[in-house]
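Action item from last meeting closed. Structure (408 res):
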């Protein structure tokens, strides 16, 4: 079995570790997190790495370089998923990093070599994304540990239940002087490489993002006896806002998504007095992102004033745009050229990645793999081509060797 085929088989195996029988969902500090972690730890050890679970729940495998001790080149991605996920978002990057470790296990390197399976990149359980990689970058504050999931369990309580000590979260933080850089392979999660007919690409930068919980408040009332002129229907107001958000994003060239909306009290014969909705807003640059949000705020004011509604927005997550390191990007491009013989395209990532957080403590580089099936991701219909995964593995290995060649 080739390394690429083994990575795909292992992605299938991880894809079966889910909280739900009918779909893939594996969230931070869950029993499924523990089960996937145990499997990945085993695979890392089989690839010649010594492994540990860090204070945030990230699985880290390491082998020393020719001169033991820091610094380390780190390869990785995440092991958690969104609800009803595909099998490759995050997992493919960790599994290909393990395959590179296996290929280079006896190859002397001028730095230590680490593979990291980050936890909680998606923020599915607690709403705040990039927890594991932000802990790796020393950027987790006590407020993160107070956030509660839908069952009312705080992140701190969940860490304790998982066997970790929230008071020691700072121990997950890595020092810049201990890191050569960070390389991440990830599926593109869009159609650009597919439309270009190319298997691989170099990521130039990662999108700027903000996430919000929005609330629209009106007045619950009888669905039959309340004339329209007397209604303050929170759901209709929210629906008008959702359509306006799409129009603003298209006009401003940004990307906005309302992925979740709920009406309260939720009776079929009750005019909703409250609507709660999510907002995921992204752009290539921070200024574009923030200007689009200012327009969304103004439109929410207008809609709610016209309908006698109130509204508020709570920001849950913010990540500024991150530019990939030119040296590491050149190494990735060299790896792709050496493998495919063609100059790879450079594209900006509309999806967020752990590399955004790691960039605070290390230079980053990212390699994109073509997504099949119209580029769909965050869906069980997510697909990759085995041939593309094979060239991605070869390119990834070549990129690591290119980084090594450039080191004293
Ligand atoms: O939401 C994202 O962009 C990433 O998949 N977490
Ligand atoms: Mn994702
Ligand atoms: Mn991902």
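Sequence:
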């Amino acid at each position: 079995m080739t390394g690429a085929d083994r990575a795909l088989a292992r992605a299938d195996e991880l894809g079966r570790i889910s909280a739900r029988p009918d779909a893939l969902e594996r969230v931070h500090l869950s029993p499924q997190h523990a089960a996937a972690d145990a499997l990945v730890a085993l695979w890392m050890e089989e690839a010649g790495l010594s492994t540990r679970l860090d204070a945030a729940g990230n699985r880290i495998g390491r082998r020393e370089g020719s001169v033991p001790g820091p610094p380390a080149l780190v390869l990785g991605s995440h092991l958690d998923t969104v609800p009803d996920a595909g099998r490759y978002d995050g997992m493919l990057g960790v599994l290909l990093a393990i395959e590179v470790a296996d290929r280079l296990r006896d190859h002397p390197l001028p730095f230590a070599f680490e593979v990291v399976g980050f936890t909680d990149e998606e923020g599915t359980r607690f709403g705040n994304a990039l927890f594991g990689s932000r802990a790796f970058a020393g950027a987790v504050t006590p407020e993160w540990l107070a956030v509660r999931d839908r069952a009312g369990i705080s992140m701190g309580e969940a860490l304790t239940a998982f066997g970790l000590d929230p008071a020691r979260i700072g121990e997950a933080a890595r020092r810049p002087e201990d890191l050569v850089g960070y390389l991440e392979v990830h599926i593109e999660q869009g159609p650009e490489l597919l439309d270009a007919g190319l298997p691989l690409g170099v990521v130039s930068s990662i999108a700027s993002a903000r996430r919000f919980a929005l609330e629209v408040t009106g007045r619950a009332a009888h669905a039959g006896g309340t004339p329209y002129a007397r209604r303050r229907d929170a759901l209709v107001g929210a629906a008008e806002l959702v359509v306006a958000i799409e129009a603003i994003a298209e006009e401003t060239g940004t990307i906005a998504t309302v992925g979740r909306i709920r009406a309260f009290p939720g009776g079929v014969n009750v005019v909703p007095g409250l609507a709660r909705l999510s907002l995921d807003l992204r752009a290539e640059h921070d200024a574009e992102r923030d200007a689009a949000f200012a327009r969304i705020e103004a439109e929410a004011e207008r809609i709610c004033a016209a309908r006698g509604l109130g509204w508020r927005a709570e920001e849950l997550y913010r990540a500024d745009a991150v530019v990939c390191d030119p040296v590491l990007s050149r190494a990735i491009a060299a790896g792709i050229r050496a493998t495919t013989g063609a100059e790879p395209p450079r594209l900006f990532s509309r999806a967020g990645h752990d590399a955004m957080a790691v960039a605070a403590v290390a230079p980053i580089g990212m390699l994109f793999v073509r997504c099949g099936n119209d580029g769909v991701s965050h869906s069980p219909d997510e697909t990759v081509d085995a041939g593309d995964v094979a060239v991605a593995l070869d390119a990834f290995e070549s990129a690591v060797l290119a980084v090594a060649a450039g080191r004293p």
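Note appended to the action item: DSSP finds twelve helices and 16 strands in the chain.
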